[in-house]
Amino acid sequence: MGFLAVVLLPALVFCTATASPITYNINLSNYDGVHLIRVFSKFDGSVNRFIDKLVKDNEVSIIRSSLESTDILVEPGNVKWIKRDFENKSIRYKIIIEDVGAAIRKEAGIAPQPQRPNVKWDWWSSSWAQWWSNFGWKEQNPKMMEFSEQDGHATYRHSDFITWDCYYDFDDFNKYYNYLREVYGSIVTILLAGYSYEGRPISIIKISSGEPNATKVWIDGGTQGNEWISSSAVTFVLKELIENRQAHGINMKKIDFYIAPFINPDGYVYSRQSDRFWAKNRKKFEDDQCFGVNLNHNWNSHWGEEKVYRENICSWKYPGPFPFSEPETRAVSEFLVRHAKNLKVFISFQAYGHTMEYPFGYTDEEPKDVGRLKEAAELANGAVERAGSPKYKISSMFENDGYSTGNMIDWVKGELGIKYVYNVQLRNDDQQWFITRPENILPTSIDALQIVKSIVGYATK
């Protein structure tokens, strides 16, 4: 029997940039009663071989693996005997979620507040819009929420176009980016890196300092479709650096930011509409029933050295037929090459893991400048903690995830020579895996902002 049969579920509620929530009456993968189990497998080949056998027999599905553990999904009918086998083999495990379907429904939606009124702008719109955003609309709308840092230097405001108490569709996010370009046109430009496999735009929002030869910073999210929180968090950082620009210090205004909230738009849309935990893009392979390439392993840095994944198109970690085989990674890599001059900081946000990772993933050797990478990350941890969140683990990708090849940050560090390069695995929501409940979107997004501000501040001081 195939793992996770597709059935018609009741409509789920998601957020949109309109006054009313939208519902989808569509096929969603049925995760009702499915267990998420973490199997502790550090340095134990027999455990990994047993899990591999379960995968080959189509009894479980691997969602994430690291050096210390592997997270698997288990159908309700298989839970008892798999737990029994683990216990008979003295394999340590922990049940993270007993009903993944229930967790998805809890995550699914809180209706947003009403949209901002439509306003026509003229030649002085940029400064007027700044006033409207920071003062006028706030006073007219008492529902706008504020969150202050403990040091009192910044205030976080919900924009009524996009709020941070629910998740939005890809098209709604793009409407918000277009709104930012319209209102803050003096500093905001939307650049097109290319198109996804299904033809969706891969947009890079540039926040310009207006200074020649400015230091550049890259921030991205949404490399894997199921990482909803990463795109929301990156969009929050984008919002703060534009709409709340004055609060974040003069140093932030001397930098050109290049922000890509959706590296994998097709995966995000499919995850929203069909399968909450879909990670890969949506490439269709001829004469094969499996779809997709894991875009985080399609980069030309020791690509395909993990043979077990390279030879299995159906694997969650399939790296593609060759490096940069996918339009998404080609578009982003070519954009980065064109804009590499003065690029000093590269931060890719993903989920989950509560870790700030630096290169490399293909080897246990660390970069020569690892001391400064760690020091900047420690500074970020201090800011995260002051904002009320627990600290992130700081490690190399190899130390945290184990052998990991063809990944983005190794290519950026090795090929482009960018100094400060990080893969940030955002916080877990009470160990709820990729599912971050709506009430935790904003705190997690504030983590991302603190990390960006701290690392950029350190790198440009």
From TrEMBL:
PROSITE patterns the record matches? PEPTIDASE_M14 (PS52035)
- Specify the superkingdom: Eukaryota
Recorded hits in SMART domains, A to Z, give:
Zn_pept (SM00631)
Q: MF terms per GO, please?
A: metallocarboxypeptidase activity; zinc ion binding
One GO CC annotation: extracellular space
Domain Peptidase M14 stretches: 166-459
Tell me which UniProt keywords the record has, alphabetically: Carboxypeptidase, Disulfide bond, Hydrolase, Metal-binding, Metalloprotease, Protease, Signal, Zinc
User: Which Gene3D superfamilies does this one have?
Assistant: Metallocarboxypeptidase-like, Zn peptidases
Q: Which residues form the signal peptide?
A: 1-19
Pfam families from the entry?
Answer: Peptidase_M14, Propep_M14
Q: Which cofactor does it need?
A: Zn(2+)
Give an example GO biological process.
proteolysis
Q: Please verify whether the record's keywords include Cell membrane.
A: no
What family does the database annotate? Belongs to the peptidase M14 family.
Q: What is this protein called?
A: Peptidase M14 domain-containing protein
